[in-house]
Amino acid sequence: MPTRRQIFEARQRRRANLIAAGSTGAVLLALIILVPLAPGWDAVQRSFFNGAVFAKTFPGLLNAFLMDIAIFAWCSPIIAALGLAVAVARDLRTPALYPVKLLAIVYTDIFRGLPVILVIYLIGFGIPGLGLPRPWNSPYIWGSLALVLVYAAYVAEVIRSGIESIHDSQRAAALSLGLSSSDSMRFVILPQAIRRVVPANMNLFIALQKDVALLSFIGPVEIFRQAGVYKSLLANFTPYVGAALVFLAITIPATRYADHLMNRQRKARS
Amino acid sequence: MKLMTMTALACGFAGAAFAQNDCATGKTLIEGTFTVATGNPAFFPWVLDDAPESGKGFEAAVAYAVAAEMGFDADQVTWVRTSFDQSIQPGAKDFDVNMQQFSITPERAQVVDFSTPYYSSAMAVLTTNAVVDGGAEATVSSLKTLLWGADANTTAVPMLMDLIAPDKQPMMYGDNVDVTAAMQAGQIDAALFDLPTALYLSAVVVNDGVVLGQFPPERSENPDQFGMLLEKDNPLTACVNAALAALSDSGKLAEIEAEWLQATTGVPVIE
């Protein structure tokens, strides 16, 4: 039997939901009615939302998207491993290993500071230009390396923030129990740190899924480039809209999942 | 080159005499000005030194000749830069005509107007001597086995698929510069370009570059014909067509072609 207070709160919630739904509906309706009133709407509709073009090009786009998925699939484990290694290297406290730590610092500074597309261009055309024989000059290899280098730098920073969020007393406690410093990192610090940064890394991997499209600039025909080919053949931008839909179909569930993880973590902490 | 500028100027003066009752009156973007768009950058030999204002280069010269034919002085021609995407997007255009080797296709013609062709190009195979030494020949069966590249914005892509149908998926790039970078890096063996562009790239841009052969325009089902691009249903299209027809009849167009694109002979034909 709900109390009077609970009944009141339920009614308030219902009222808030109704108002939210109503105002959202009003805005959507206004958009649906007003946008087509714009003088150029017909032309925009023909160029961007052309059903015939969409039907003609969408299967080809889906097919090209397999390339994006493949690149993502082989890059992401390497990024995770390299990011973890760099994060641990940045946390080294042995004086003799300072050069390694310095290298890790320089690496994250450089690759977090450069636009992804710039790194892809420089590595994708530059390294094969040194005269490497096939298949070692493949744009897939070097383009993937560029993605790995940039994203591992971000992942490393995220993992490092996780490591630093674990209080030093834990390390001290582990050492006093007789664990070596590498064992305390491995068995005490890292498992907690990584769990804490899962949502943040999830966001990075969503970003990576989108940035795979940048590899098209050095040759691979993935979905973005395929859409561009259709665009120039048909002089119509609808294939880009199709490509956008394909990306959203992947990234929206992934972002919702990341949000869900973050919420769960917040609740667990509070 | 000097002769060209002189003729362009002479035509300009001749045209100015009957400018008042000309077809183009009231149909240009800005009254009394003929606005021509080109690429950014504009490539040799279509425009020399990325400076179309000089009237040097095939397309620059054609633009001034067409302008003169329609009654515009050389100083009434202004140049703007657009990308391919800007030229096909819906909405108002900021040019009267756009010249950047636009191939006329029926699909594109549904969105924009094309003038009658001002040039018919052969498609040519750009490659390097290293690939030729490796055994590549100017035959379709030999070309099939190469690793191909193309500028994704051009009609070279469907032509590559139709004429050669390579064994491996071709690589696609954003512009000429990227295609040649990939060729230099050994990532592709060969690329398709219109013949004048291929000759220029092989001679100047690509180290060790060579034009292996050409597909003559009449061989492919769909000859690569360049037209001036105008906004859809632009009344100016008829005027541009009339001007091009006059230039073609008087032999002026052939003259311009001979001056700027004459080196296009002597390339072996691919059977």
From TrEMBL, chain A:
Domain ABC transmembrane type-1 positions: 65-258
Topology in the lipid bilayer: Multi-pass membrane protein
Keyword terms of this UniProt record: Amino-acid transport, Cell membrane, Membrane, Transmembrane, Transmembrane helix, Transport
CDD domains: TM_PBP2 (cd06261)
Domain of life of the native organism: Bacteria
Any one of the GO BP annotations: amino acid transport
Annotated Gene Ontology cellular component terms: ATP-binding cassette (ABC) transporter complex
Molecular function, one GO term: transmembrane transporter activity
Pfam families: BPD_transp_1
Job of this protein: Part of the binding-protein-dependent transport system for glutamine; probably responsible for the translocation of the substrate across the membrane.
Stored NCBIfam families: HEQRo_perm_3TM
Family membership: Belongs to the binding-protein-dependent transport system permease family. HisMQ subfamily.
Alphabetized PANTHER family for the sequence: GLUTAMINE TRANSPORT SYSTEM PERMEASE PROTEIN GLNP (PTHR30614:SF20), MEMBRANE COMPONENT OF AMINO ACID ABC TRANSPORTER (PTHR30614)
Protein name (Swiss-Prot/TrEMBL): Glutamine ABC transporter permease GlnP
Annotated source species: Antarctobacter heliothermus
Automatic annotation (TrEMBL), chain B:
Solute-binding protein family 3/N-terminal domain location: 33-264
Signal peptide feature range: 1-19
InterPro entries in the cross-refs: Solute-binding_3/MltF_N
Pfam families, A to Z: SBP_bac_3
Coiled coil: none
Keywords: Signal
CDD domains noted in UniProt: PBP2_peptides_like
Name of the protein in its database record: Amino acid ABC transporter substrate-binding protein
